[in-house]
């Protein structure tokens, strides 16, 4: 196996990158400016030493606590619970949510050996005990595991007197009914709002 094949194989292990896309990336790097490739290589090499999980919310950060947890202008009475650190960036970039976040690090998936103990649920409950949080928005993915996790969190949090809500799910804006699956339609009907 030569250097091209080795790098192609490494790139193909990234999510969403097949062997053909990996080959295109390698060929692009071979044609790219050498200084840029060296900088890119250095950035990848330093990534795991520069970035760590925020000690408060669990999101990726260079500074601990992260900029979101440190922002005094955010609404500290609401915490949005997400599965992974990249979900924080997705929701934050929408500009619709100005509260705090909490990253679970996954979802409850018994078939994969992941129970509540493997997730960051205990730190979430600790954050809620001081009484300053009024609402927890559960923003796990609308999957069986995401729903299971949401129900578990609702049971654990409701005893603390904190309101637990779930992100609405259903038909996307601009979507056609004929292409919607049964589960999406069912969720759309259950989560309908008054006009």
Task: Report on this structure.
- Helices cover 44% and strands 13% of the residues.
- It is an alpha/beta fold and 195 residues long.
- The chain has a 4-stranded parallel β-sheet with strand order 4-3-5-6. It has a two-stranded antiparallel sheet with strand order 1-2.
- The protein starts with a helix and ends in a 5-residue tail after the last helix.
- The protein has helices at residues 3-12, 19-31, 34-50, 67-70, 85-94, 121-128, 144-158, 182-190, and strands at 52-53, 60-61, 75-82, 99-103, 135-138, 163-166.
- The model has no long low-confidence stretch (mean pLDDT 93).
Features:
single chain; 195 residues; alpha/beta; four-stranded parallel beta sheet; two-stranded antiparallel ribbon; 8 helices; 13% strand
């Amino acid at each position: 196996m030569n250097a091209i094949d080795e790098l192609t194989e490494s790139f193909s292990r990234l999510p969403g990158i097949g062997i053909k896309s990996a080959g295109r990336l390698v060929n692009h790097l071979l044609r790219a400016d050498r200084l840029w490739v060296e900088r890119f290589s250095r950035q990848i090499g330093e990534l795991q030493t520069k970035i760590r999980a925020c000690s408060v919310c669990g999101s990726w950060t260079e500074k601990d606590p992260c900029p979101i947890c440190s922002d005094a202008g955010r609404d500290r009475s609401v915490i949005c619970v997400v599965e992974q650190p990249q979900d924080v960036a997705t929701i934050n970039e929408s500009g619709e949510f100005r509260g705090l976040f909490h990253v679970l690090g996954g979802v409850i998936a018994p078939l994969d050996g992941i129970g509540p103990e493997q997730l960051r649920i205990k730190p979430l409950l600790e954050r809620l005990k001081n009484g300053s949080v009024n609402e927890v928005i559960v923003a796990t993915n609308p999957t069986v595991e995401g729903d299971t996790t949401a129900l578990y969190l609702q049971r654990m949090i409701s005893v603390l007197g904190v309101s637990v809500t779930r992100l609405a799910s259903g038909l996307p804006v601009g979507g056609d009914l004929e292409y919607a699956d049964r589960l999406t339609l069912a969720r759309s009907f259950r989560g309908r709002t008054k006009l």
